[in-house]
Specification:
alpha+beta; 4-stranded antiparallel beta sheet; two-stranded antiparallel sheet; 15 helices; elongated; transmembrane; Transporter; membrane; coiled coil; transport
């Protein structure tokens, strides 16, 4: 029976070869115009965050290597949801006309339909193939038997895999223009993050001590704007910068206090019995004053002082404190701009990780479909065991790459969560689709000038130079005299335990001026002046260095923006070409005129093309974010646009 099946296949192939000798170009055009239904995605749950991506490779390998014989034919274990839509790939590929579906219960119908391609007498349903009865020994030709895996449009439900590699909380991104949509739906953002538990605990010293306190219990989708708002509110580095700014404001108030006089009040209370009184009491006559009696004293002093002239120290300290406050204020601005860039890049990294999951799952689907085709052709007797092994290896490799992509996704989520300082038990995912963020409207020269005018790093160096100059004047003030005024008012009351002792109250005041001039300090003031002069030179050098660095950042981001914008268009065209190439490679392989290697190469090219497009879009968005950061304070210059 197996020999007869081979003879039947050779007869059909020979007839079709005769009919297509003069129609090679028409057949190729027909192959280009053929349309295939997209490969169905691997069955997953509605919520991809809690679903598990399993590994069907072991079970499929077991089916391919250890089939159970049934009537001399391999029995595939893949379920076909619509067997009536199965088509014969051999006839479809060899004929310039569309493929003719095989009737489920009529064995010879494909041969009679193939007679429409070329009128070849030997290939008739009732001629050479007459012994083939529909229910006889040619059971593998039945649509629900051996030919079941060989399909072009049937929806295959793959066998559930056995090696769990769960995506703990992954949310695929929405559809990218020009890129095939991801099968699972993205969970919608039903609530604003402000209404959820995304703010950290108010106690900064709190840390988890039990496993359930750090176990991830939910996944919150966030848009980029929501992530930026959370970062501005919760990021610890930015909070530290704000606290340093508040501290510098207090330093300014401390320096300004030197412009006012100081008023102090001092009071003393004492009881005194002197040793000399005991000696005097021993020689005093009876009935007279007792020199040994204790004396009680109460005194109070009100002192007013003012530094009339400080040699320039007071004004220099105030100027230095104000410049230090400005430095910390610019540091808050710099960290805010850098935080915006870091959060944006972390968000784009999360989007890229989600897209990698989607693309890797599509690659797994493509590899699974190629494996099914190779197994079906081997079962039909027109394929080779080598092609099946190649498909199995490709399928296993794609599963491994998918597992690696899952790990990268989890890392990207936790990186964004750390940047936003959300609670320990919340995980994040991206809610925005992967799309072009906008277009930069300014030319390069205007962008460079704006960066010079607005970058906080440049102003920081200028302010630091002014700060060092104020500290230099403060060091020089040590050589100058200082004049201060003071006024004291004193009140004194004394009493004695001796009834004959003196008791009374008195007051007085003091007015004066004090001059202090340090004539020689061993060179300390001169050394401090030299230190500050060196710091001034350092600030000037840092300004020049930062100016050149700012220009380089603007130019680099601008050049990357232009190149990635062009790459988006190129990658979109390459993606469509890769899809068409894979479709034709599958048709050639199913028709027996191509190899499994061509299909694998086409699948690899398609995966690479999808990666290139996603990386081009996200690379453009990253370059745009870096350019906004290089300009600082001008994110509104990027307007929404698409290539």
């Amino acid at each position: 029976m197996r020999n007869f099946r081979y003879i039947f296949g050779v007869s059909v192939s020979a007839a079709l070869a005769l009919s297509s000798n003069n129609t090679d170009s028409a057949a190729l055009n027909s192959l280009k115009n053929e349309t295939l239904q997209p490969a169905p995605a691997i069955a997953q749950s509605q919520n991809p965050e809690a679903s598990e991506i399993l590994n069907p490779a072991p079970l499929l390998l077991a089916q391919a290597t250890s089939p159970e014989p049934s009537g001399g034919a391999l029995q595939p274990q893949l379920a076909v949801s619509e067997p009536e839509r199965i088509q014969t790939p051999l006839l479809a590929a060899a004929s310039p006309s569309p493929a003719v579906p095989v009737q489920p219960q009529i064995v010879v119908s494909p041969v009679s339909e193939a007679a429409r391609v070329a009128e070849v007498a030997p290939v008739q349903a009732q001629a050479e193939v007459a012994p083939v009865q529909p229910q006889a020994e040619v059971a593998p030709v039945q649509a629900q038997a051996e030919v079941a895996p060989v399909q072009l449009q049937a929806e295959v439900t793959p066998v559930q895999p056995q090696n769990p590699a769960s995506i703990a909380s992954g949310t695929p991104p929405a559809q990218v223009p020009g890129v095939a949509p991801f099968a699972p739906e993205r969970p919608s953002v039903s609530q604003s993050p402000d209404s959820l538990y995304l703010d950290p605990d108010t106690n900064p010293l709190l840390f988890p001590t039990r496993p359930e306190e750090v176990r991830l219990e939910g996944t919150q989708p966030l848009t980029l704007e929501q992530a930026l708002e959370l970062a501005r509110r919760n990021n610890q580095e930015l909070q530290v910068a704000r606290l340093e700014y508040e501290r510098s404001r207090a330093v300014v108030r401390q320096a300004l206090a030197a412009e006012y006089p100081t008023l102090s009040l001092q009071g003393d209370a004492s009881r005194q019995q002197s040793p000399g009184g005991q000696i005097a009491a021993a020689g005093s006559p009876p009935g007279g004053p007792n020199p040994d009696a204790p004396t009680n004293t109460l005194s109070g002093t009100l002192q007013l002082s003012y530094d009339l002239y400080t040699g320039g120290l007071r004004s220099a300290n105030i100027r230095a404190a104000e410049r230090q406050q400005r430095v910390t204020e610019l540091e808050v601005e710099r960290l805010g701009e850098q935080l915006r860039l870091d959060v944006t890049e972390d968000y784009y990294n999360l989007q890229e990780a989600l897209e990698q999951i989607r693309i890797r799952q599509q690659s797994v689907n493509n590899a699974l479909r190629s494996l099914q085709d190779a197994q079906a052709l081997e079962q039909a007797g027109v394929g080779t065991r080598f092609a099946v092994l190649q498909a199995q290896v490709q399928f296993a490799n794609e599963q491994q790459r998918l597992t690696e992509a899952i790990a990268q996704l989890r890392t990207a989520r936790r990186q964004l969560a750390r940047r936003l300082s959300i609670p320990q038990f919340v995980d994040l995912t991206a809610a925005d689709p992967v799309q072009i963020a906008g277009r930069w409207e300014l030319p390069l020269e205007d962008s460079i000038v704006l960066a010079f005018q607005n970058r906080a790093e440049l102003e920081q160096q200028l302010v630091q130079r002014e700060l060092n100059e104020a500290q230099r004047r403060a060091a020089l003030s040590a050589r100058n005299p200082r004049i201060s005024l003071f006024a004291n008012y004193n009140v004194l009351r004394t009493s004695s335990d001796d009834p004959l002792g003196t008791t009374g109250t008195g007051d007085g005041y003091t007015l004066g001026a004090r001059v202090n001039w340090n004539l020689f300090d061993g060179g300390e003031a001169r050394a401090r002046v030299r230190q500050e002069e060196a710091d001034i030179a350092i600030a000037e050098t840092n300004f020049a260095n930062n100016r050149n660095l700012v220009r380089l950042q603007v130019e680099q981001s601008y050049f990357e923006l232009v190149s990635t914008f062009e790459n988006i268009q190129t990658a979109s065209i390459a993606l469509e070409q890769a899809r068409e190439a894979l479709r034709l490679a599958r048709l050639r392989f199913q028709a027996g005129v191509g190899t499994q290697t061509e299909v694998i190469d086409a699948e690899t090219d398609l995966t690479l093309a999808e990666f290139n497009r996603i990386q081009a879009i996200l690379g453009y968005n990253r370059s745009l974010a870096r350019l906004q950061r290089a300009i600082s304070n001008f994110p509104g210059l990027a307007t929404a646009a698409t290539p």
